[in-house]
Amino acid sequence: MQNSNTGKGLASFDLVLFLWARRKLIVGITLLGAIVGVVTAFLITPLYMSEVIMFPAITNSVSKALLNEQSTGRDDILALGDEEDCEQLLQMLHSDKIRDRVIQQFNLIEVYRVNAASKTRNTELQEAFNGHITFERTKFGSVRAQVLDPDPQRASDIANYIVDQVDTVWSEMARERASKGFQVVDSKVKELEVEIRQMADSMRLLRELGVHDYHTQTERYNEYMGAAILKGDQRAIREFEERFKVLAQYGGPYVTLQDRLFNETKRMSVLRMKLEQAQADMDSDLPHKFVVNRAQPSDRKHSPVRWLVVAISTASAFLLSLLLIVVQVNLKKIRLEQ
After folding, report:
1. Nearest to 155 by CA among 25, 300, 49, 17
2. Domain of 258?
3. Alpha helix (H) ranges present in the chain?
4. Residue 10 resides in a domain
5. pTM across the whole model
6. Which residues, including other chains, have CB under 8 Å from residue 175's CB and lie 6 or more apart?
């Protein structure tokens, strides 16, 4: 047992002596790594981070939330969105429209030093954009937008601009669809108005011919006809017979027009309500998210962490020196064996 401990001690002592004999190489490479780390840490462009926290809204339709009498729980304009709404908001933030507008607004092709004449310019610009601007869903159901930029003011401006563009792009998409729906309903309303006017004119002509209310007139004429027959008033009987002929000739068309006019008027009421809803959706500027915190310029850089860069560079250089020593010793053994 004592011999084993002695062997371990000698092995450790031999390793210390082995490394001590090559201390100049180890110290030199480690010092060189530390110098490279310091230089690199100060050459790396510092980046400042700004972020915005927002919650998705649960509804995107003004007409559904405010003008629909049969509203549901998802029509509350003050309610926060669920997981599905959060995913929709993230998809909108990752849209090409928002990315292209941000790139154009802040001239990011120069900020990210992308060669405008390069054939892969769009790919490089998109990769640089994704490397500096990220979106993620938090554990609280909100969405965080983070922007890294060498200029702290520009970082906050980009983050706030992105948040504002969410409503702009979303409203443009919704307005495009709502305008199509408005045109369809509006055309149907105008067609129905023409039909109702035509039916109203026909009803007016029938009233001029003596048919004012078929059911009421028939009931009254029967009553008066019976009374005239009982009295034996032949003149009144002939007069009511003529009136019955008018009702017999025009009563059917009158009843048909009356029922149709009632149904079309009811249908017009429904279409006008839909037209009002389509108009509200088309003119809506209701926000599609709740902003908890807007971005502010940061007074402290986010990256690089200089001491960490120096520490990693120094440790890497130290490990590299050990690796070089191992390779050197093994090469000597191979040569001796040959």
Report:
1. 49
2. 180-283
3. 2-21, 23-43, 62, 83-93, 96-106, 108-111, 121-132, 152-208, 214-231, 234-283, 306-337
4. yes
5. 0.63
6. 281, 282, 284
Q: Which of 49, 57, 122, 134 is nearest to 94 (CA)?
A: 134
Which pLDDT tens digits describe the chain residue by residue (338 residues)?
Answer: 444 554 444 444 476 777 777 778 778 888 888 888 777 767 677 788 899 998 888 765 655 655 555 555 556 566 666 778 888 888 889 888 999 999 999 998 888 888 888 888 888 888 989 988 999 988 888 899 999 988 899 999 999 999 989 888 888 887 887 788 888 888 888 888 888 888 888 777 777 666 666 566 666 666 656 666 666 666 666 665 666 666 666 666 777 777 787 888 888 888 888 887 777 777 767 777 888 888 888 878 776 666 776 788 888 888 888 888 778 777 777 777 76
Clarify whether residues 312 and 255 are in a common domain.
Answer: no
| Structural element, H or E, at residue 137 | strand 133-137
How are strands ordered across the β-sheet holding 143-149?
A: 133-137, 143-149, 48-56, 289-293
User: Is 34 contained in some domain?
Assistant: yes
Tell me the β-bridge partners of 53: 144, 293
The gap between the terminal CA atoms of the chain, to the nearest Å, is 38
Phi, psi angle pair for 272, to nearest 5°: -65, -35
The answer to whether residue 211 sits within a structural domain is yes
CA–CA distance, 98 with 108 (Å, rounded to integer): 13
- In this structure, the answer to whether residues 197 and 274 fall within a common structural domain is yes
Under a CB-based contact definition with an 8 Å cutoff, are residues 92 and 170 in contact? yes
